[in-house]
Amino acid sequence: MCHLCKQPIEVMAEKVEIQRQTVHKECFRCCVCDKYLMPGYCAMDDGLCQIAFLFNYFGCLWFCDKHMMLGSGEKLELLKQKMRNAGAGASIQ
């Protein structure tokens, strides 16, 4: 089972093992820019994962090498903008 999309992972499917979780390679992307991620070149922001509306919308918040170095406030603003652009504005606080 993919930890991100909650769908089954086929035996021969490309997958990534990250923090003892298995995910589809296709699902393992930066939550800001959708860049494909590689273990060791990305990071999760545990603080932002505690914000319910973000976790409910994005799931685990993984960031690429470009976005992982931003402060949590900057990441939050980028994620809110992404949600607005996707039409999820009503759920943004």
TrEMBL record:
It holds the Pfam family LIM. Keywords: LIM domain, Metal-binding, Zinc. It comes from the Eukaryota. Residues 1-74 form the LIM zinc-binding domain. The keyword Metal-binding applies. GO terms for molecular function: metal ion binding. This is LIM zinc-binding domain-containing protein. It comes from Panagrolaimus davidi. The lineage of its organism: Eukaryota, Metazoa, Ecdysozoa, Nematoda, Chromadorea.
